Amino acid sequence: MSLNQNYWNDRWKENKIGWDIGFASPPIVEYMKQYPNKDAKILIPGCGNAYEAEFLIENGFQNITLIDIAPKAVDNLKIKFHKNPHIKVICEDFFRHNGKYDLIIEQTFFCAINPNKRTDYIKKVLSLLKENGQVVGVLFNKIFEEKGPPFGGLSNEYINLFEPFFKVKTLEPCYNSISPRANSELFINLIKKV
């Protein structure tokens, strides 16, 4: 199976979007409530319905870029945010995106990437982050029985993957996951090493 644009667009057309919880992820909301820089340049890759972006806008954030590879998802977002000058919506493969960001929000994007591409993900994130930029969000802390996506992982695996490139400020179980994901999510706060 190729996890390309056609695959993801078909999932959207067929409404097979099981990752969509219908609102912003509580661990991300809780973190962003206390995030001080409302002018931070924020990227949300593989953003889906971008509930986190809605929350950010409602809370005064001014500079948000949304990327999704699925044209159907992007069309929906362009309608949803068409009057909002603080949100930029792009239909693009994350690995081809260019820009510089203070913060990248991770919400069900990493788990959609084949594990053999995780090193490529890290390289791309590093190229997109400004000095001392951060990645915050949620990762699954479980191995899925079915073939992915989603693709899971465990905390020790993530530490080995991220530690050479990031200061791992936080990588701990979420206390406020939605009930279907309780005890299976980790909150991450990774700071790009200088």
UniProtKB/TrEMBL annotation:
GO MF terms held by the record: S-adenosylmethionine-dependent methyltransferase activity
UniProt keyword annotation of Lyase present: no
Keyword terms of this UniProt record: Methyltransferase, Phosphoprotein, S-adenosyl-L-methionine, Transferase
Keyword Phosphoprotein recorded: yes
Alphabetical GO biological process terms: methylation
Top-level taxonomic group: Bacteria
InterPro entries with a match to the protein in the record: SAM-dependent_MTases_sf, TPMT
Entry-linked Pfam families: TPMT (PF05724)
Entry protein name: TPMT family class I SAM-dependent methyltransferase
Natural source organism: Riemerella anatipestifer
